[in-house]
Amino acid sequence: MAVNVAALRSQLETALAGRLPAPFARLPIQAETAPFNIAEIDKLTGGLPHGGLTEISGPCSSGRATLLLSALASRTAQAHVCALVDGRDSFDPHSAAAAGVKLEQLLWVRCRDIDQCLRATDFLLQGGGFGLIALDLSVLPPKTVRYVPLNVWFRFRRAVENTSTILLLLDQESNAGSCASLVLRLGLEPPRWSASQTQPTPFPPNPCAHLFDGSQIHVELVRSRLRSAEGGHKVRSLARMNEAGLVANFRTKTKWGDFRKTVSESK
Amino acid sequence: MAFASIYVPDFSIQAVVRAEPALRQQPVALVDGCPPLERVVAINEAAARGGLDLGMTKSQAIQFRSIAIRLRSRVQEEAAHAALLDLGWSVSPRVEDTAPDSIVVDLTGLASLFGSEETIAPLLARRASDLGLSVHVAISSNLEVALHAARGFPGITVIPPGEESRRLGALPVQVFSPPAEMIEILERWGVRTCEALAKLPVLELSERLGQQGLQLRQCARGASLRSMILAEPKLCFEEEMALEYAVEELEPLAFLLARLLDQLCARLSARSLSACAIRLRFELDNSSENESAPPLNPHVGGREVKIYEKRFTLPVPMRDSKMLLRLLRLHLQSDSPHAPIVRIFLAADPAAPRVRQEGLFLPSAPDPEKLELTIARLANLVGNSHVGSPRLIDSHRPDAFEMSRFIPLHNAPETRQKNIDVPGDRETIAAFRVFRPAPRAKVTLREGRPVHISFPNMHGKVAAASGPWRTSGEWWREDAWHREEWDVEIDRPSLSSANTIENSSSVEAQRGIYRIYYDTLLQAWFVAGMYD
Q: Who among B363, B420, B532 is closest to A131 (CB)?
């Protein structure tokens, strides 16, 4: 059978020679992406790939929720309907509203355990039509998420393939493996405290004047199908990643940051 | 002017068969009366061929094993009659509700919509078939002639003007439903058909049978004249089914609901309407001793019954019976009646069908029907209160929000693009994660400031802290709050040795920035959440 197919193929190639340069060559697919609305991340990744699984992993306070809210804000601003499967009911609507998420465009599913999360994601993928489906497992213990069979991620990837839906997975450790089109690893740099510039001690005389101002998030691009298509990358060490432009940093600020800036400028 | 008469032969049987389509090709007999004196009150043609006769007792009828015996159902007859009226109103607003099994439709002015009378008659028969009824249709310029022709001739009959007397001539006089004694007299005279009746001399007939006889003769000649009595159009879509045996499980119940929904949707479709809400009412078996069953309702039908009642509002009008059935199933799975069901009532609140043109520049959105089904599935999985769209409440209470029903808007996307091309041009708002419920924490203070904190699966030194930020409110309520909040950076933490979080509801925490608070009312420390 294989011989027949090969023979047929060579016959067709001979017949089409001169008319088509490579009749069986796979044309590169121009993947559509949606922005995170964070310039550093968009420059690093090219955006969230449509019809693919994007995995964002990192420890606590490493900016995973910030990235999630930014992506949700970007998609809801474009009038897309989004869904959030919340692994431990930890989503903060006030933060989301401050980040620009249009809450009326967001379907929030508040789960209690990983089984509910996976089944809810299945239902949402079957329903179809969502611009972004986020599965937030980052507050669940890594051991629990590690036990999710790989075929689940494979099934999710197949479900969003050839659709315009973006499937976003947030966890503490990367679990989806090769099923993910884009994998980002986040890390927390030392946070910024307002008094730390003038007063290095962590316990200043007046702790009320010592405000948490924001933090700097370190982002590593672990895997990207888009980048691989462009030229590929197999670098592992941080130094080589830096050279290859596979890391980025972005700053976050607190909700009261703008207010404080305005007050200090008026003074 | 033309009238179409629609007649449902074996109406009582068709009303039952409509709810049980499997009986359509079978011999069926209906019994009625007080047990054990039930008698056969209606039979279809197949049952008559099988030897069954009206008036037989139920025990006699049961001997005919191939014949399906059912109880006569007046609620199903009412539903079938409502469906018949819907059929009439689906083509014309001028409908006469002549009898439970007959209606007359005024066809004046319908030619431009549906074509000639020869086209309208099969259309009516087809629509009746969609509603689960097999009908006779007769069209004539005389209302009474149409009515009698429909009763007398099977299938479709179109009587051109001037041929009324000739066409009615072959019909037996019984088609006018005269009194029994008059039939007997006519039988003695040898008058059996309309043709013979029409030829009787007027004066002699009047002397012997009076005005009633003359009216009968007029009918037989196709010369009877009367005005149409219009029925007021109703938008009432209700179906009911009384069950011989109580249903306890969801599968057989779904089977019955599917039948009722099919009928409801067919009626809605006939009137070019959709349902914006479905009302469901179950009459439950009184003998059930289930504690979770609804309480007794003493005023239904003069007897004590348990009632389970629900109203399902649909986000968009829909009339897809399969979709509605799935929604009902999901709702019943999460909120079952907890008692056997003996009677099912289903009603649809009508609304204009959804007509929407998708915008060329609008992004694709979930199909509203599918979305509703997805939400129902999710609600079944995680609970109703855990699915929806968050809505912020105008309050200073921490984490104040409420869940609202998710109905996405179909707005145009924002055209204004923010300047985000330059890295470092703007900072992103740091997100916060809320721990629900807030875990208790042990906090060590030094000079009034937290220096060490421990809560489930985490403990560590406080590297930096900001606070206390005091908030309080709603002191007049039982759930008033009064707290002193701190933002703390916990450095060099260590996970507890007993890290068995899989089965615990607590949150596994690591190094990070947290918000803790001291609840002055409860005199305890809690972790509100973490910046992430």
A: B363
- Say what the pTM is: 0.76
- In this structure, the strands spanning B28-32 and B39-43 are antiparallel
Contact A129 B418 (CB under 8 A): no
> Which of the pair, A35 or B303, is modelled with greater confidence?
A35
Please name the member of A111, A123, A254 whose beta carbon is closest to the beta carbon of B430: A254
ipTM value, please give it. 0.83
List the domain boundaries for chain A: 30-187
Q: Could you report the per-residue pLDDT of A65-90, keeping only the tens digit for each?
A: 999 999 999 999 988 999 999 999 99
CA B508 – CA B406 distance, rounded (Å): 31
Fold (CATH) for A30-187: Rossmann fold (3.40.50)
| Among candidate residues B161, B180, B204, the one where a domain is terminated | B161
Q: What distance in Å separates residue B96's CA from the closest CA in chain A?
A: 46
Question: Could you tell me which residues come within 8 angstroms of residue A101 by beta carbon, excluding any fewer than 6 positions away?
Answer: A69, A72, A73, A76
**A residues 8-27 lying closer than 8 A (beta carbon) to B:** none
Residues in a beta bridge with B531: B432, B513
Task: Report CB contact under 8 Å: A212, B466.
Answer: yes
| Inside any domain, residue B83 | yes
Select, from the ranges A137-151, B173-187, B288-302, B501-515, the one with the highest average predicted confidence (pLDDT).
A137-151
The amino acid occupying position B494 is S
**Neighbouring C-beta atoms of residue B465, cutoff 10 Å:** 23
Sign of CA dihedral A226, A228, A230, A235: positive
